[in-house]
Amino acid sequence: MNNNVLTTWVSVLFFFIFVAPGILFDLLSERRRPGASESSFREISRTALASLVFSGTAAVLVFCVSQIFPGLFLKIEGIARRGNAYLLENLALTFRTCATLVLISLGLAILGNWLLSRRSGGANIRAINSWTQVFKNDRPEGHEAYVRVRTGFGTYYGKVANFSSGLEGDGRELVLAPPIRSAVVGKSMSAAPARFSRLIVKGDDIQSMFVEYYPKGKSPIPLKEHHPDDSSGEESGMPDEGA
């Protein structure tokens, strides 16, 4: 094996030793804490710090074991004095040492995440927005979500066909399917023409939403046409326009 090939392999192993533990720990930690927007610098710094801690601890453990069992791993003085020549002459020790460092550092990352999870109660936290919660997670099995949306332009009602699930509010959209009803401010609710199969409402325009669930395959309670200040909303099962 020549120096170029050895250098390539050592570079790959060094990646797993000094970078992979931090990446693994960061991925596992997403189960314990809600995701949040952060700069690339902060994310890279956190990953690098975690890798340094786990890899450094693994290196100390390997060094201690090598002092107790000489010949089991590479010697630091050999690497410092002879460099690649020492590694080429001791390929078995080189890969054994690197593989041990990788396994220990990754194991420490998993152990560290487990300990922190136990400390926080052992619960996994998933970062979800309120739309996902009410349209999907809170929806009873075998039911569909219907929503009444109030915006600055008017009010809309329909079945939730799709929605943006990202945490960021900017650019979020809500897609409604029939039965679609709408009303401009100050006017009565009326059914949309049958040729319209979808209505897209921009999240930035939404002021409030009323959500209800109906069994799949069954039409919701018909919405009675009424003026916003009409108190007949209870009859339809929908919140009153003036509420």
Notes on the structure:
The chain is rod-shaped. 20% of the residues are buried. Strands 1, 2, 3, 4, 5 and 6 form a six-stranded antiparallel β-sheet that branches. It folds into two domains: 117 residues, no CATH class; 107 residues, SH3 type barrels (Roll). With 243 residues, the chain is of the alpha+beta class.
Keywords:
alpha+beta; SH3 type barrels; 6-stranded antiparallel β-sheet; 8 helices
Helix and strand layout, with pairings?
Layout: H1 3-18, H2 20-29, H3 40-68, H4 76-82, H5 84-89, H6 91-119, H7 130-137, E1 143-151, E2 154-163, E3 173-184, E4 190-191, E5 199-202, E6 206-215, H8 233-236
Antiparallel strand pairs: 1-2, 1-6, 2-3, 3-4, 3-5
Helix pairs in contact: 1-6, 2-3, 2-6, 3-6
Alpha carbon gap, first and last residue: 78 Å
Shape estimate: rod-shaped
The amount of beta strand, in percent, is: 15-25%
What is the helix tally? 8
Question: What is the N-to-C succession of helices and strands?
Answer: HHHHHHHEEEEEEH
Largest sheet: 6 strands, antiparallel
Query: How many strands appear in the DSSP assignment?
Result: 6
Please bin the fraction of helical residues: 40-55%
Based on helices, strands and strand pairing, what is the structural class? alpha+beta
> What is the average per-residue confidence, as pLDDT, rounded to a whole number?
76
Low-confidence stretches: 223-243
**CA gyration radius, whole angstroms:** 30 Å
Count of domains: 2
